[in-house]
Design a protein that fits this description.
The complex is a heterodimer of chains A (400) and B (196). Chain A is of the alpha+beta class and 400 residues long. Among the domains of chain A are: 33-68 and 234-271, no CATH class; 80-227 and 356-363, Nucleotidyltransferase, domain 5 (2-Layer Sandwich), CATH 3.30.420. Helix content of chain A is 45%, strand content 18%. In chain A, a hairpin with a 4-residue loop joins strand 10 (306-312) and strand 11. Chain A is globular and about 75 Å long. The termini of chain A are close together. With 196 residues, chain B is an alpha+beta fold. Chain B has one domain (6-194). In chain B, helix 5 (148-160) packs antiparallel against helix 6 (166-180). Chain B is globular and about 55 Å long. The chains are: A alpha+beta (400), B alpha+beta (196). At the A-B interface, strand 3, strand 4 and helix 13 of A face helix 1 and helix 2 of B.
């Protein structure tokens, strides 16, 4: 039975009315937030100290520059390269006895300037060996790579191929390597995975490839950044909560235990960082650079500690994340800023290199079906017959 | 002797026609020109009857990009990925084949092979193949999605340049067409106007 839209339409009308009311509240909150941003910008050192001493229940951005900074985009170099990778995957099918998964990484290599060139690749890999589909600790404990963990594995692979490809290029032109989504592997950070899983994927995987990327920056003008479209982050808004808080030092558990509304800082509650910078920045401008203070960064990232800024583009405010070694190099920050603005102009609102990498990586529903059919066919040719669950059969065969 | 150029590859094939994908964007030979491919022991000849440039991925539409650019070339320099995402295909009507030293102006036993390389024909080859106009019936009787007469006229104009006296060749072709289309004076007239 398909969705009964007639029964939903009244609820959609209510939803629209509620959005309208919320929008009015949001506007007045935003006015206040901007005023707070500008007034606290002048007390940069005081704000930094306040952040250092605070104990908050939410993630607060660490200011690295004057927080009301609006930096116009510098020009792009005459010749430069943008490299981007993105991935998709087909997760293991629990309704089938053959345990395997597939990761497809797409890459785009775009060169601009006097010798424009483009190369687009995809690297599909099937993982099926015992040591590929599970992570095993030294004492024999095992965690299967599936679901959210497969998403993390995919991010590691995106980074690995980006580092490999960047290392193969001639070092004569400025190069920006772009990833899609956050540099913080939230899939690992937000969960309670055993240490050996975090070590394998983050320390020996993602951060190991970041070491290689950092190494490259010694021999050429090279920056790595990630682009987050429509980010729902609130770290800068949370910084304003801190600026508003009347308690010294800020300590949420001590002064506002168990309170989730009615606190002084709730006057900016519900706002997103992108709302704030959509009002503050002009098209092409970037915000100040902030450092992210997530506990996973403090514990593992070291010199790759994630910093970020926002960029106002024609269609949206995007969040750009960079490792510390990029954030500390003014030329590299300028290179990333200029390149991201330029990429979005060329890509009709979204970085063209990322969008082409995505096109190379994307696995459609039809691809998935064909992939499993191919697996079954090849195994059947080798006279290997798989058990399949009744649920899987029922989903594939619709009947009345 | 002009060099033989490998320009495309067969991506769809049947006994009467094939589609070739160009190695270079906009690298298709002119409408009506003679091209060939091999399916050993045959060399299969065909006439280009349609050229099309489109997005490689049928799900992705080409969008206009040049509002703020002075030339069309600038669009490709600023968006180098376009050359990888767009493809030029051309369709070829098979009009005969060669085996050893002999040429035959009817369909070969085997179609053009999939992934067969497609070459432009040298002037000598065009001259040799069009010395006999028997292939014209395959062309004139074909059912194509574009006007057959436009393709036939373009083919004859193109072939005439390979003969020592193009005018003599076109008069001979006109006479052949007059025999074939004796019952359709209107069509004949319109075709003759196009090869004058």
């Amino acid at each position: 039975m398909s969705l009964d839209l007639i029964r939903v339409i009244g609820q959609i009308v209510d939803f629209a009315a509620s959005l309208k009311t919320r929008e009015r509240e949001r506007k007045s909150k935003l006015d206040f937030a901007l005023k707070t941003l500008k007034s606290s910008a002048a007390e940069f050192d005081g704000l930094r100290q306040k952040v250092e001493r605070s104990k908050t229940t939410w993630l607060v951005a660490g200011p690295r520059e004057r927080i009301d900074l609006c930096q116009p985009a510098p020009p792009c170099p005459e010749d430069f390269i943008v490299l981007a990778s993105d991935g998709s995957h087909i997760d293991a099918d629990h309704h089938q006895s053959a345990h395997c998964f597939l990761i497809n990484i797409g890459m785009a290599h775009l060169q601009y300037g006097r010798n424009p060139d483009a190369q687009l690749f995809s690297f599909p890999s099937l993982y099926f060996k015992d040591d590929e589909v599970v992570i095993t600790s030294a004492d024999g404990r095992q965690t299967p790579i599936e679901g959210q963990l497969l998403g993390v594995k995919r991010s590691v692979e995106e980074c690995r191929l980006l580092a490999e490809r960047a290392g193969e290029l001639k070092a004569d032109l400025p190069l920006v390597a772009l990833l899609d989504g956050s540099l913080i592997l939230w899939g690992l950070a937000g969960q309670t995975y055993p240490d050996f899983v975090v070590t394998e994927l983050l320390v020996n995987g993602f951060l190991n490839y970041f070491d290689k990327l950092k190494e490259l920056s010694r021999s050429r003008q090279f920056a790595v950044a990630s682009y987050i479209s429509f980010s729902r982050s609130t770290e800068v808004v949370n910084l304003l909560r801190l600026a508003i808080c009347p308690h010294q030092p800020v300590d949420c558990d001590r002064y506002c235990p168990g309170k989730f509304e009615g606190r002084e800082c709730d006057v900016v509650g519900g706002l997103l960082d992108r709302d704030l910078f959509a009002r503050l920045l002009d098209p092409g401008e970037r915000s100040a650079i902030f450092s992210s203070r997530s506990s996973v960064l403090v514990k593992y990232y070291g010199g790759h500690e994630v910093n970020f800024f926002y960029i106002r583009l024609d269609g949206e405010v995007a969040r750009v994340e960079i490792p510390l070694w990029v954030a500390e190099d003014e030329d590299l920050v300028e290179l990333v800023h200029a390149t991201v603005v330029d990429q979005c102009q060329r890509g009709l609102g979204y970085p063209v290199a990322l969008s082409e990498a995505h096109e190379q990586a994307v696995v459609t529903g039809a691809d998935r079906e064909q992939f499993w059919a191919l697996v079954e066919q090849v195994l059947a040719e080798d006279r290997i017959y798989l058990e399949s669950s009744a649920k899987r059969w029922s989903k594939r065969t619709r009947w009345t | 002797m002009e060099p033989r150029k490998k320009i495309a590859e067969v991506v769809e094939t049947s006994s009467a026609e094939f589609t070739a994908q160009c190695y270079k964007l906009d690298g298709a030979p002119p409408l009506g020109s003679l091209v060939k491919t091999k399916n050993e022991p045959f060399e299969i000849y065909g006439v280009v009857y349609n050229v099309e440039t489109h997005s490689l991925d049928p799900g992705r539409r080409v969008v206009a990009r040049g509002e703020n650019m002075k030339t069309e070339g600038e669009i490709f320099r600023a968006n180098p990925q376009l050359a990888r995402l767009l493809r030029t295909d051309f369709k070829v009507l098979v009009v005969g084949y060669g085996q050893g030293d002999s040429l035959y102006h009817y369909l070969p036993q085997k179609p053009a092979p999939i992934h067969g390389f497609v070459y432009t024909c040298q002037l000598e080859e065009v001259r040799a193949f069009t010395r006999s106009l028997d292939f014209l019936s395959l062309l004139v009787d074909a059912r194509l999605p574009i006007s057959v007469d436009e393709v036939a006229a373009a083919c004859l104009r193109h072939a005439s340049e390979a003969h020592p006296d193009p005018q003599v060749f076109l008069i001979k072709a006109g006479k052949e067409l007059a025999c074939m289309l004796s019952s359709d004076a209107k069509r004949l007239n319109s075709l003759l106007k196009r090869i004058r």
